[in-house]
# Entry
Amino acid sequence: MLLSHTLRAATLTLVSVPALLHAQSRKPITNEAAVMASAKAVHAAVLSIDTHVDIAPNNFTAAGPNYTQKLPRTQVDLAKMEEGGLGGAFLVVYVGQSPKLDAEGFASANAQALEKFDAIHRLTEQLAPARAEIAYTAADARRIHAAGKRVIFIGVENGFPIGADLTNVQRFFERGGRYMSLAHNGHSQLSDSNTGERDGVWLHNGLSALGRQVIAEMNRLGMMIDVSHPSKQSMLQTIALSKAPIIASHSGVRAICNHSRNMDDEQLQALKKNGGVIQLVAFNSYVKCDPTRDVPREQARAAAMTDLRTEFGITATDRREQQAQIQALADEKRNAYLAKQEDITARRYPSDPPANVADFVNHIDYVVKLIGIDHVGISSDFDGGGGVDGWRNATESLNVTAELVRRGYSKGEIEQIWGGNLLRVMERVEKAAAGSQR
# Structure
């Protein structure tokens, strides 16, 4: 096994050499008319996949406005994907972390997760079967895209809803879940979270015993392991255990923006050896950080957040308890709260300087130069707070392609970045599962 792992790492290193040599010779394009003409042609030809889009189930009902239409409050829906030429997206089954890891909390979280699974299936099977279809494999994605429909994958953000029942992993997989993270913001029963950096408090020092079992089960089934929210130790332990490549569904580069949600160079190098991919995220606070503090702006932001919590009846003072109260709000009310929160923190009083598409692509450039183009992808975290100037919603997806063209990336490279690398990892995860089942 050790020899096999060493040979695989060596092979991956050799494969990335041509990409690195090409990166050194890549020449920016300065003619803006040529940039846009090329970008439009490339964008129309490639399968672009955004690997992290949050949803609210109330937008997936037959009664009233729904995800088939251009909704005023969402950053993504089918109409916006079609307008922006976004070929596919992972719609996310997200349940926030409860501070109590008990049977009652697990049951509630599981019910919320199943509600989101049901919503996504309702979209593709009842509301818009001619426009969108769930992809269960990489081959499905290519077939659906060739048929002119939007490719819908399902990702699970936070393994908390599986509770202590390992069989729930298979249930989520059978419902279409094709990646899952073992924690979100707050330690779960499976893994420590990146948020441990904030207070220095850890629960498992990486993965729990159950978390290790979940990794083995995900490998067996062919479900990609997502390491975007878990802690650094959890991520490195996951790589040591996993028999298949892993992904970071929506993370940034720590060297550019020093945030616990972003990956440092050691993690990126480990990801390369594993054969995985980091889906760089266009979330303002993870794209561009300001090392200087603007105290008046921080005070104004804090006051605005206090007013917002009062307006929605969020009374808890502990951050985790606040999150639990927010998650307990009815879907429409929670959507409204999150929209106002995003307006306060990302637009009115941003904690960091506003980021734009060029800042976002700086993260792509960094990873390409450090570990090679084979390990880079794209995500937005739309409707979960994502968005940078120039890519505020799915209708502006062409702007990302244009910036890549502007920097001299070829059509083939852009195809890799927009989804090819992700699908390659998915295929390797599928193949590893098939081998283990045999």
About this structure: The first strand starts at residue 49 and ends at 54. The CA atoms of residues 184 and 292 lie 28 Å apart.
